[in-house]
Structures are given as structure tokens and as C-alpha cells.
Amino acid sequence: MSILPGRPGSWLKPSAGHNRARAGNGIVYPVLGIAVCVALIYLMLGDFKFSPGKSELSFVQRNGTQFVVDGRAFYVNGWNSYWLMDQSVEESSRPRVSEIFQTGAKMGMTVCRTWAFNDGAYHALQVSLGIFDERVFKALDWVIVEARRHGIRLLLSLVNNLQHYGGKTQYVKWAWDEGFGLSSSNDSFFFDPSIRSYFKIYLKTILTRKNHLTGIEYRDDPTIFAWELMNEPQCASDASGDTLQEWIEEMTEFVKTIDKKHLLTIGLEGFYGPVSPEEKQNINPGKWYSTLGSDFVRNSKVPYVDFASAHIYPDQWLVEADLNEKVEYISKWITSHIEDGEKTLNKPIMFTEFGLSTKAKNFEYSHRIIFYKSIFNKIYESARQNGAGAGAVLWQLLVQGMEDYNDDYGIMPGERPSVDKLIKEQSCRLIAVQYGKNSVDKSSVIC
Q1: Which listed residue (146, 228, 342, 353) is catalytic?
Q2: How many CB atoms lie within 10 A of CB 250?
Q3: 353 is catalytic
Q4: Which GO annotations describe the biological process of this protein (predicted)?
């Protein structure tokens, strides 16, 4: 299948860039309710007062199937904004980053997933193999500081499976152009020893980077929630999955030799491969998905992987399905992966991307409320039962003026108050689970 431009980090998602008018100024909530909710979020995340050179914030850790902070369960209601580093290179666009952090925090969101890579593209962090642009690195430094200032933790992805922002394609091209690449195939990223060595150089450079604003190395900064090894890894040239499995084992062990403090995930889409039982492969949206070289359970069993990830895009997987069919399918998809976390992996499961395209069949904006709510309910019910469903991360949030970064999934908070309200309700529900039923005054807040 051909890769189309669109959502960076996905295939078969057509590009957009629609201009949308604001639908209003949102809903005014009782001041007391907001104060209670914000106070609880502050308590949940810890002391976020920024002090250069100090680290007063606790790291998120794992205890079995749950994330924990200071011994208390931690649930994620988060969002994707892949563009943070890119928009922080120029001083003129940095206010967009501040605005999205402020917006996420006001809705009670706790984690933002973003790219900590840009290989050979505009505003490239890595301009050629092993060569980095200090100006762009300083932009990433600033993103981390700004996230902490707003009480947001970061899930940092380290390379793309796709061509957007360079990805594995750029590594292979560099190696091939310099005359030492074994193959021009994109999948040689996974099996070429020279490319693997260069990717390790990149990993070590990122993990040991000393933030010029704080003096703290990234591996010692608890503002970083976790590392994601690769966005949506696939190695279709080896449908057995052995090539990708060996790469995951090698790279996750390498990361953990440098950074033992942070959580680590792979970045999988969640498809079951040929090693998985047939009943699990039947959960895939089609037989083709088991031939992509990835395998959710097998890959996630690697001991250096702290939590598993999956994505949710039924409008791309089940193109002709109606909304009810999609909701029914994702219920099975989410349940299956949470059960894997509880019964097989003994690890948390986080759904690190989910969205509903405006180009979905018979799309209406009210469909997003139904779709999002079905996902939020599954996470909430798992949290209530101390299950492995550790959170969900919406694709994607933007601010006004970023139409060129939008796709068919983008949301600009403030345009549709019903979406903002639903996100905040989920935040408050998860806080209530974490701190007890009496922690949130349900008569004075939206949850």
C-alpha cells in the first residue's frame, strides 16, 4: 500500500489543512469546581516549581500493570502534539507551544506525546548521521522546561517508521549515499549493523543530552514520562517478525544500559503477528495486518519494555463500517489488549494514539463524542478495577494558526466545547479513581 501525506506517524491518512471557525468561547464552569480539579491535578503530578539544576519531581514508575508516582496509581489522559520541537526552534512560534501546554493543563491532561526526532528535514535535529544541530537541541530543551512549567509530562518518540520527519528512510538513504549501506530497502534500518550503530549514537546523544536551561541530563529529568523507541514500527520484508524482534531486543537493552530511571515502550500499533494464537490474530482488522513484521504480545514481552502501546484508527482499518460497527470493533480491540496486559504481559497498556477522521464514512462531529467516549469509558472502567488500561492519548491537538499541521484528526480546543468538556470529564474521572470517590465534588465540577 502506498503511503500518503497526512498525519505524521501514520500511513493511509490523507492530508487536510482545513480552516475552521471558532464555534464559541467554550463552557463556563463553576470556579470552585475548576479550583478543586486543578488542585488535585497539582497534587497528582507533584511539585512543579521550576528550579534550575534541581529535580523535585518524582519519576513515573511501573508496579505490575499500573503506572505509579510516589506509590500512588497514575492514569494518563493525554494528547499528541508532534510538532512541539519544530515550533520551538523559532522564537516567533514558541507561544504556540506554551498555549497548547496551557490548554492541555486546563483540561486536566497530564501527558503529551511528541517527536524528539527530526532526521534531515526542515528544522532537523539530526542533520546527517551522528551530526546534530545545537539550535534545534536547544529548542527541545525549552520544550521540556515549558512542559514542566505547565505541569505536563512528555512521552518522547525517538524515530519514525515512516518518512515524515526523516525516519528510518532517511537513515537508510544516508548510509546508502555514503557507500556503506547494505541495502536501499527501508527495512535495512533494522538489520544493517552500521545503521544500527548510528541509531545507537542517536539514542545515547538524546538520553545523555544536558539541558542548557537546567543543567539536567534528559535521562535524569522526571518531566519526561517515558521514551518511545519508534513510532509505529513495521518490518514487512520479514513477516515472521524475527528481524523486528531482534532489533527491539537490542535497542531496548541499549536504552536501559544508559537510562534506568525512565519507562520505555516500543511504539507499536497493536497488531497481532504470526506467533500470536489464531484467536488473537482474528482481533486484527484483517489478515494482512499479521504480515507487517510486528507482533503486539511477542514484542511487548521483551523484559526491557515497561509498558505496551496500541493505536486506535477504525476508520482506516474498517473503511466501509458505520459508526456503530466501529465502536463495537474498538471495544473488542481495547478489551483484548487490556487482557493481554493483565494475563500475559503483567504490564500497563496505553493507547498512545486514537482518532476519528473527518473523512470517515458519513462523518458528523457528534460521532467524535460517541467514539471518544467509548474509549474513555473503557479506560475508566479498567482504572476502577485496577486493571492494565493505563490511559489514552488523543491524536491530535493544535492551536489557531496551525492549519498546515492539521490533518483529518486534528482538534483545536475551543472550537467544539462538547469535545473539551468530554476530555475534562475524563481527567476528573481518573483523578477521582486515583484519589478516591470523595476527592472531587461532583456537584461543582463537570465530572
Answers
A1: 353
A2: 16
A3: yes
A4: polysaccharide catabolic process
